[in-house]
Structure prediction request, 207 residues.
Amino acid sequence: MKKIDNNLLPFYKADCIEAGCDEAGRGCLAGPVFAAAVVLSADFECPHLNDSKQLTEKQRQNIRLVIEQNALAWAVARIDAEEIDNINILKASILCMHKALDNLSIIPEHIIIDGNKFIQYRDVEYKTIVKGDGKYLSIAAASVLAKTHRDDYMSYLHLQYPHYQWNINKGYPTSKHRQAIKEFGISPYHRRSFKLLDTQTSINFDC
Prediction:
């Protein structure tokens, strides 16, 4: 299969409706995990589309508009911190991808997923692909949507809890984020099942 300008393949399995899936926020200390599912047409073009981690924030936001305006179908879902704590982050990430697939306006005939773990979605054939967000257009598109929608949500939560600097760290375990947890305790959006401090002896759970 011929690669296009950005070196990403258009499909893993041609001649069917294929959805790409990815998640964002799996390694964060706070906030939901987000997932996206995207179905692209054979003639979809976005030369700068790539794994979201390889793009600047401005590039991601610009590419998000292209995807949302030109994809055959797309959907984004989230699983909040409380459910992550209840079922664990791996199961939450997969459930989140299932929710995104549920919300697609087109039923996929094949699914490609970034990573190596997935649970059967309905009776749809699927393929997990390690580093798939740097190999296939639809997975890269899903990575951009999941990342940008999650970043926007964490910036919104930052307005309620500015001392954690979620507008900058998006909930990831930076030193300043951990220091804020040590100083102010945790918020309702922190994942209590995660190691929130480097030496987790006591945390104020009443923030």
Residues 84 and 92 are 6 Å apart (CA to CA). The first helix runs from residue 57 to 70. The first strand starts at residue 18 and ends at 24. The radius of gyration is 18 Å.
